[in-house]
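Please check this today:
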Amino acid sequence: MYLFGRLSDATHSSNKYLEYYEGEQQKFAFSQMRYKTAFRGVFETWRDNFSGTVIDSTNERLHVDSFRIPDEPGTDKDAREVWQRNSMDAYASAVHLDALVRGVSYVVVWADSNGEPTITPVSGARMAVCYKPGSLNELEAGARFEVDAWGRQQVTLWTEEYAYEVAYGTTEWGKGTLSPNPLKVVPIVPFENRITLWGSPTSDLANVIPIQDGINKTTMDALTASEVAAFPQRFVTGLDIVLDEHGNPIAPFDVGLDKLLQAEDSQARFGTFPAADLGNYVKLVDMLVQHLASISRVPSHYFLVNANNTPSGEAIISAEAGLVAKVRERMTNFGEAWERIIRLCFAVMRDKRRNAHAMETRWRDPEYRTEAQHIDALLKLKQLNVPEEVLWSEAGFSATQISTFREMRKDDARAAAEVQKLLPQPEPQDPNAMKPPQGNAGNAARKIHEKV
């Protein structure tokens, strides 16, 4: 019950962050209620959401490539097999996304019916954990709460000693199944975003939402002004006001249809009210977007600010330095979590590498560069005798492709050896043949020196 109480409910801030990421937050930020009543139907489907861009710009650069342990050949192959069997090429991105949006996500490692390790991502909205007193990374317990399509809840509790499972549809949590935990550790790994020593992990949208609300409000004011005062309004003075039978004034002209407005009264005067200038709204929105880019460390060109001035390639690389640094910081935290997951998988397989704390997660390069710049840099690294497999990895090839390259190079070497056998071979040397006498160049040089 303690862990269930720590589970985020419908009012938790993490659900608000999810609404902003999806663009489902309050979209009608009108300055006055009467405008909301009048224009709700006009702008009902309107949204101008930058929150998704802030999250996706980071998540799209987080790609796990492989795992390695120094002096342990074959680790990457074994880890890749478990990784692929659990479809983590697809779900790893979802784990990162949930952590960036909600602040935390989880992964559970357990054994299936065949004793093979399973990796199960779990949203931060469906799991709660408890750390050991005084520890920042060792879990004392963790519980997962799932609900199926029929509304039935299923609960699983893990501790270091046992796993306790309450089946779907069982309303009394005391009627569960208790089984020993062979791993002797809580098989849950949290992915915590923006870790601090003074509070809980937080979403990347925590500082973005107030500015996003300001952008929504300003843009809605601009749309309201465009509907009310952005078109020139005509007026006429000096005409008698004609009333209908109910006492309501009758419009003398249909401005949308009448091409020519005319009046018999010589005192009549026609004129036009100036249209509202929407440029001030555009400037204010641009300023707010620039603040949003600065706070989120997402380059301004992602938001099309100053779109008339297309930045050069070097300018783009310089502008993305902050975003790349932010992504690398996330790689450090998330990479440690993935390493713990792979070690748990080895623990399920009873492999000695369960204690391989020297394991490291290898990520794809988060920096976007032109192909020519990238390859030129790799060629310079090759001159420093950097191993080819490292260069292949830096070039962006996956671990599977690199493994294929190795086999292809072996095939090429075997084919070259077969071709060499078909070529004319040199005549074998007779080991008993008399060798030519050694030269006497040393004595001749000595005699010349003595004469001199």
Observations:
- The chain has 14 helices and twelve strands.
- The chain has a mean pLDDT of 82.
